[in-house]
Amino acid sequence: MLALLAIFGSSFLISLSGALMPGPLFTLSVRETLRRGFWVGPLLATGHALIELALVVGDGDFHATMLLSRMVPNPEPGTLLLVGSGLAALAHARRRAPRRGD
Questions:
Q1: Residue range 53-73, pLDDT digits in tens
Q2: What contacts 86, CB < 8 A, 6 or more positions away?
Q3: Is the pLDDT of residue 7 over 60?
């Protein structure tokens, strides 16, 4: 049970950090909403959910072979980018946090 809580907690924090840091999907949704209106947001969310569902439901061999080996032949730069982005977010949060006595 403790392991499930740890998995849930870490998944929640990772998802939250991804949701709080604007990325390409957020930028696309803002730009296209200004051009095309309200329904862009639900359409983008639906498309994103379908892709996520396909990744979760998909075959494990497909993930390992197609997504990692062929589409991302060298995952280290992406890993470094994600770690650097996370560290930058933490540093920014520490600078913006109110200090005691302020």
A1: 776 666 555 555 555 555 555
A2: 17
A3: yes
Give yes or no for a contact between 81 and 58, defined as CB atoms under 8 angstroms apart. Answer: no
The answer, yes or no, to whether residue 88 has pLDDT greater than 80, is: yes
What is the CB neighbour count within 10 angstroms for residue 25?
13
User: Which 3 state secondary structure label does DSSP give 17?
Assistant: helix
Q: Quick one: tokens of 94? A: 């520490």
DSSP string, 19-88: HHS--HHHHHHHHHHHHH-TTHHHHHHHHHHHHHHHHHHS-HHHIIIIIIIII-S--HHHHHHHHHHHHH
pLDDT at 80: 78
- To the nearest 10 degrees (0 to 180), the angle between helices 40-57 and 24-36 is 150
